[in-house]
Amino acid sequence: MLLLTSIIAAGVAAQSWEFKAQAGIYASPVISMNSVYFGDTAGHLYAIDKYSGEEIWNVKLKGAIKSKPAIYGDLVIVYDASGQLSAYNKRHGRLQWKYQMSQEVQVDLWDYYLSSPVLEDSCVYIGCGDGYVYAFKAQTGQLLWRFKTGGVVHASPLIHQDKVLVGSFDGYFYAIDKVSGQLTWRFKTVGDAYFPKGEIQRAACIYKDKVIFGSRDFNIYALDIETGKGHWNYKEPGSWIIASPVAHDNALFFGTSDTHSFCCFNADAGTINWRKQLNMRVYSRAIVDKERIYFGCFNGKVYGVNSKNGATEFEFQTAASKAGYADLFKSETAFADGIELYGADAKTVEEKILKLGAFLSAPIIDGNCLYVGDANGRFYSLELP
Question: 3-state DSSP call for residue 173?
Fold first, then answer.
């Protein structure tokens, strides 16, 4: 279903398109040539035209798609909640190969994502709810090796030179040799009284000689890539740090969970440059476009902020968020009276938030357009100012 939508960006009205998927979109899209590929929580993998929003094809997988697809040549490689990694021809959507891993698990209500397949040197790397990190041949799906961690692996791997860098719900961050699958080093998060394991839920980023990631123990860590020794860590009291950080111009950008903010850090020292207060979580990775940082929020908004001071320069709000915003929020930084996020009705409140068109999906930019999906299954192409 193709709809036209009016968007207000930096005070200027723009026209773009909107596509309706059959279920919520939690993970990021990927673009190849003139097509955009993404999945929904009903297990549909879509290929749509990036200029018009018209559907090219879709295929139904066995489980929900809660990770970003990867493109390898003529293949789009995708992972679903049945524990199956599959490759489809990106032009017509025919299955080329598949590999069945163990059935996936959802740790809790806030475990929204699965590990995304990551490509490097004709190999694809991915984590699984069975606690393993896997390596396959991208062209054929042949298993090369698997490495066992002590917990669920829903973080996406990060490849750097000869290492696969990935965190686990066991609270360890691992560096694995990408050829042999043998452990190079591992680092244990410090934990917290309420979350002693210090679970690592999402992917890391690289900045100079550091690998940087967040944890459920309220910390963000910067480690030496070669040794796994600590450079710095920062504790965000009372909040998980789920979002994968982004490094740009000696700064680090990431959102927080329960302190409902978006932060800019000095990436060398681990100190705060500025903080933008919000009224809901940021779980998705931000994206940099020149001097503006774009990110989605659970409140149904996509923000574009100035990288130097955090000032809002772009804002998009879903129609569902506009309609239901006042029922949940009384301001841009506070909940409405009587709304308790983690009370007895936590699941009901969470469902209401998702129905705003919450942005769990990370945006991507191609040309002058930003592409992103929301939890109501609406996929947007937004023209950037």
Answer: strand
